[in-house]
Every structure is written in structure tokens, then in C-alpha cells.
Amino acid sequence: MTRPAFLDGLTASLPIVIGYFPIAFSFGVAATRAGFSGVEAFALSLIIYAGASQFLALALLTSGAPVLVSAVTLIAMNLRHVLYGPALMRATGKDASTKRAWVWAFGLTDEVFGQALGALARGQRFSESYMFGLGIGAYASWLAGTAAGAAAGGGALEGWPAVSAGLGFMLPALFLALLLSILSRPKVPVIAVAGLVTVGGTLLVSATTGILAGILSGMAAGAVTGLARR
Amino acid sequence: MNLELLAVAVMAGAANWAFRVLPTRARTDRLQPGGLLERFLSATGPAAIATLFVAAILPSLAVEVSRLLPVLVGTAAVIAVYLSRRSVVLATLAGALAHGLVVWALG
Question: Which of chain A's residues have a Cβ under 8 Å away from the Cβ of B84?
């Protein structure tokens, strides 16, 4: 593993690290408030490592939903991740190694995928070391945030509404910055269609449906409008 | 340790691993350049990032000024800082800071 590429990845993980910590912190707080122990909250972050589905897991487990129903619901929520691997590997070129992808690709969350794709678009050379750096920073922040939240317990940020609000805006801000970093004229129809369908799907059905329908319709728009590979 | 929680976590975690890892082995760069499937897959990145931005910001959109104003100012700060500095890190931090400051100013 070459040191500079790993460190480049770790540095690039900084906005994700800052964005993940408060969300994971809120998860730790919510888990302990729902009656789970700190170890159980940490185990959910360690094993599942997917924010929205972890919050949903708390709701399902505390409502007494059957194990299999809960697991299938969480799995369906993360189906969109199957699209990220091929998209990333297409951006890296055909010579990119995936020998150690069985480890680093577990860290291919929405934000890590977006950051990696944005970095490649800005000229970053792909390497597995870079992906390790990017992924480890994000994963460590997620785990540390969960542990801190579980230790702090319920109501930790209740006296600090502005701080809580600012931290809560970190992820939308990150996605917007990533979107600006990959923006180009041929991508406008893809972005517009994906955004509009996400709004429609979320308002009419559910947030999960909105996300899946948004991504797929944006991809369809790309196919139709002829968004060619760079 | 709650065994039901552990069972759900292991099943969901194993599926997450499979969803994230296995597709990296699909060598889609061997597709016909400019073909329909190639164009479809090439649009994954912008489609996913646009979708996730909208999904993340949608719950904070409301008619009340006290909820909408921080979002608008935060969004404007991200755009302004990205356009002037071309830095994802600075733009993200500026957006969160501007959002928090407006919430604080509105009391």
C-alpha cells in the first residue's frame, strides 16, 4: 500500500468524517433512548454501516417486527448500492485493480461513492490504497460517533439547537458540493430528472422508493439523452 | 446482546457487503462504447448524487420561514464557496456553518 495514496484518501474523507460524526452520534443517542445498550448500538454501526437503515432497524426492533421481515426491509433499503460498484469502476478505467475490493468496497456508502467519483472527475488517480484511506476515515468516524452518542445518552444536543441544526445540514451540503464538482452540461438532464422523480416518489410513496426511482430514472434519462462516457 | 438485533444486523450487513462488493467485479468497461446500456450506466453517478441531495434536503423544506431560511442560506453558501474556491470540503463546512448561524440568529 503506497503511503501518499492512502493519505490522499484519508484527507479526502474529511468532509465525510465531519458529516458522519454527528449523524452517528444521533444514532447512538437514539439507540440508547430506545433501550439498547451501547454495545448493541455499536454492533449495528459496525455490522450494518448504513445510516438510514440503522435508524429504521431501531424502529423495527422496538416495534416487535419479526426478524426476517426487519432484515428484508433493511436489505431492500440498500439495494441502490449495487449500482455504485460498476459506476465507480467505469470511472477508474479498465486497468484498475479490484483485488482487495472485498475489503474496501464494504465502505462504499452513498457519501464515499460520491466523494470518490467527484475526486476521479477532478483528476485523482484511482488506487485501492486511496479507497482504503477514504473508506477508513468515514468508517472510523461512523463508529466513533456511535460510541460517543451511546455514551452521552439521550438529550445530549437538546441545549444546542443551532449546533444540532448546522451539523444536521452537513450531509445535504456535502451532496450539493459533490454535485457541483461533477456538474457539466450533458449531465443536466440526468440531474433534473433524478431530482424531480425523487421528489415525486418520496411524496407519493416513500423515501426509499423515491431514492431508487430517482436514481433509475436519472440513469434512463442519461441513456436517452446520450450522456456518453467522458 | 439482544440475539434478534444481532440476527437482523448480520443479515442486513451481509447483504450490504454483497451489494457493495460484488458489483465492483462486473467489468462494464467492456460494453460497446456509446451503446444504450453504456449510457445508462454512465449516468449512475450524477443520478445517484442528485437523488441523494434531494432526498437529504427534502425533509427540511417547509413553508415556515424559520425552517426554510436556514436551508436557503446554507444552500447559497455551499454554491458561493464552491464556485469561488472549488473545494468540496470548504463548501460543505461553509454550508453547515451558515445554516447553523441562521438557526441561531432566528432564535
Answer: none
